[in-house]
Amino acid sequence: MKKVHPSDxxxxxxxxxxxxxxxxxxxxxxxxxxxxxxxxxxRAIENLMQILNYMLYDTDKEQVKLQQEIDFMISYKKMQQxxxxxxxDIIFTNNLSETFxxxxxxxxxxxxxxxENAFKHADTDSKNCSxxxxxxxxDADTLVYTIENSxxxxxxxxxxxxxGFKNMRRRLDLMYANEYEIISESKNNLFTAIxxxxxxxxxx
Length: 204
Known about the structure:
- This protein has helices at residues 9-20, 24-35, 41-57, 66-83, 98-103, 112-121, 163-176; strands at residues 64-65, 89-94, 105-106, 130-137, 142-150, 180-187, 190-198.
- By secondary structure, it is an alpha+beta fold.
- It has one domain (9-198): Heat Shock Protein 90, CATH 3.30.565.10.
- α1 (9-20) packs antiparallel against α7 and α6 packs antiparallel against α7.
């Protein structure tokens, strides 16, 4: 399968625009919640600053080290954890080797649609709420990114079709062509989304 190289200026502009349409509403909501949570403010602001630094200084590149994207995911998870009730069970499992994370490249902010969707639709008022994020690779080049969240009957997630997912799919089409697959399903009040993607080596 041949990788698409988005050298056309219009494609580059579209990719850039899609990148930054993914999540501004999320950060506005987070900032509003931070104002009412004085005990967690410092931690939330610190993680939000790390996220914004990544967005400002690294996402202008076509690709970043996979490690940088994972650091962003961890900061996002910590930011959400600091403002959610303590009983919400958030699990982050990373089974990737240090070598894989350092040597592989990924389009920046490609993981954010899954993250936003999980935290948006998770039943965070329930003491049985859970959000699970996991990463592993199936061979020397293929990343599998899985995210699951429980949800209540009053806030069911839609299939992977919201604006965040649409933008992510468009970026994937432009940059990875047929070298990715997305699977999502809703079953027994648990929503699961899986992105399998073939990554290229990072070039310094």
